[in-house]
Each structure stands twice: as structure tokens, then as C-alpha cells.
């Protein structure tokens, strides 16, 4: 049986006031193993070294705790989750969360379903579909306290994908690199059109690395106009 060194990971999470128990640690390690196994046959991530995954994927995903109180009975949707980041690490660390993962590639959903089953996670589901389609009124629209996304996309585009999922009063949180100021400025009009307002920006150094990161918090003030999100392809071609 492989023995994994976890002290560095636990020390990093202390900086977020996260203290996972033994069961959670075992789940993180099994998640890493599944990611490594599946990545041999499908492209889930370019980052696969054990320590890099623990820092750049798991710790980074959990940085949401710097910006939000995640202790309550909250619903969270992860748009464009890919290999499950940040949704699955958040579910492991905060089992009280009710989590929905959405992704447009069915093969990724198969991977996520396997992770959910093997880690015996409850109150979490992975749904196949495009963000533009699943945000329709008869689907998942305005049903969540928090929407998160680590997807690599312009903030204006991400806002059109994500804000329609958020309840009035809830939050859309975008994970970004250190170069976020220009995107935030450019996305101001999009926030307003979609019923959101920039609340704050949380800048931090990712523990265990030399990476600087940003969490952009947009508060949902009013319902999103039914015309948004526009049909597939338009948000990227013609950002708000």
C-alpha cells in the first residue's frame, strides 16, 4: 500500500482554517489515485504529480473558505467542473454542502460518478450538459446559494454562464490568477445586466507555492433577465 506524506497538505489547509479528519484525508488520497489512474486513458489534467495535485488542485479549490462561510446548509454548483475542481474537494472538506457538478463532456461525468461512488459522497451529483442549456427556467436556474467556477474563460463570459444559477442574495465566485484587475473592470457591465454586483476581491498567495490567486465575489442582487444565458456559443463570441 502506498504511503502518502500529508503533513504539508494539512499545514496548508490550516491557513484556511480547514482541519480535515482522517476520513476526509483518506478521501482526498483516493481521489488523487483515481485522478492519476483515469488520466492515463483520458485527458483530465496536465497536473498529475502528487504534491502538485494536493497544492494546485485540492488546496486551491478549498481557498473558497477564505472568502465564504461554508459551515451552513448551503447548495453549491460548480460550472465547468472538469475533473471535479473545486466542487469535489469542497464536498470532502465540507460534507454539509449540497453540491452539483456540471460539465459538457460525458467522459468526465463518468469519471466524476466513479469518484462520487468510490468516495461514498452523499448529496452530490454530476450532470452532463452545457452551462447555457442547464440554466433554463425548467432546469437548474436560480437554485443555488453559491456558484463557483475555476474554468479558464473571460470573466464576462463566466458571469453569463454562472449568475443565472444563483439565487437572489447568493454569490458567484470566480477563481482567477493574479492578473484579474482588467477582467473585473471589463466585466462590470455584464455583472449589471445579469443582476449581479461586484462585492469584493480576495487576493492571496497559494500555500505551498509561489502562485498568487484571486477569488472574485459577485453578489446576486436581482433575478437574471430570462434572455440570459444566450444560446450556446454566443457568450464566447459576443461577451456582454
Provide an overview of this structure.
It is a single chain. A seven-stranded mixed sheet has the order 3-2-1-4-5-7-6, sandwiched between helices. Helix 7 links the parallel strand 4 and strand 5. Helix content is 36%, strand content 22%. The protein is built from ten helices and seven strands. The chain has a single domain, classed as Rossmann fold, CATH 3.40.50. With 240 residues, it is α/β, with parallel strands linked by helices.
Summarize the structure.
The protein is an alpha/beta fold and 240 residues long.
Shape: globular
First CA to last CA: what distance? Answer: 52 Å
Q: Could you tell me the radius of gyration in angstroms?
A: 17 Å
> Largest beta sheet: what is the strand line-up?
3-2-1-4-5-7-6
- Described by its quaternary structure, the protein is single chain
Strand content bin = 15-25%
Number of separate strands: 7
Number of domains: 1
Low-confidence stretches: none
Described by strand count, sense and barrel closure, the largest sheet is: 7 strands, mixed
Provide the CATH top-level class.
Alpha Beta
Layout of secondary structure:
Blueprint: H1 7-14, H2 22-39, H3 50-62, E1 75-79, H4 87-93, E2 98-103, H5 106-118, E3 124-128, H6 131-134, E4 144-149, H7 155-162, E5 166-177, H8 181-186, H9 188-193, E6 196-205, E7 212-220, H10 234-237
Parallel strand pairs: 1-2, 1-4, 2-3, 4-5
Antiparallel strand pairs: 5-7, 6-7
Amino acid at each position: 500500500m502506498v504511503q502518502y506524506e500529508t503533513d504539508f497538505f494539512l499545514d496548508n489547509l490550516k491557513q484556511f482554517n480547514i482541519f480535515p479528519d482522517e476520513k476526509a484525508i483518506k478521501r482526498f488520497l483516493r481521489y488523487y489515485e483515481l485522478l492519476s489512474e483515469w488520466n492515463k486513458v483520458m485527458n483530465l489534467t496536465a497536473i498529475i504529480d502528487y504534491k502538485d495535485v494536493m497544492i494546485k488542485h485540492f488546496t486551491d479549490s478549498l481557498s473558497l473558505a477564505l472568502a465564504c462561510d461554508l459551515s451552513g446548509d448551503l447548495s453549491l454548483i460548480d460550472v465547468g467542473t472538469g475533473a471535479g475542481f473545486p466542487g469535489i474537494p469542497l464536498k470532502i472538506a465540507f460534507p454539509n454542502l449540497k453540491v452539483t457538478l456540471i460539465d459538457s463532456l460525458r467522459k468526465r461525468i463518468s469519471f466524476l460518478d466513479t469518484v462520487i461512488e468510490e468516495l461514498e459522497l452523499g448529496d452530490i451529483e454530476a450532470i452532463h450538459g452545457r452551462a447555457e442549456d442547464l440554466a433554463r427556467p425548467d432546469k437548474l436556474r436560480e437554485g443555488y446559494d453559491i456558484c463557483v467556477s475555476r474554468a479558464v474563460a473571460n470573466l464576462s463570459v463566466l458571469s453569463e454562464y454562472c449568475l443565472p444559477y444563483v439565487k437572489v442574495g447568493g454569490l458567484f465566485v470566480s477563481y482567477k490568477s493574479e492578473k484579474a484587475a482588467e477582467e473585473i473592470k471589463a466585466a462590470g457591465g455584464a455583472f449589471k445586466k445579469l443582476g449581479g454586483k461586484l462585492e469584493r476581491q480576495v487576493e492571496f498567495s497559494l500555500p505551498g507555492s509561489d502562485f498568487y490567486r484571486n477569488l472574485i465575489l459577485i453578489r446576486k442582487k436581482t433575478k437574471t433577465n430570462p434572455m440570459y444565458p444566450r444560446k450556446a456559443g454566443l457568450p464566447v463570441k459576443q461577451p456582454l
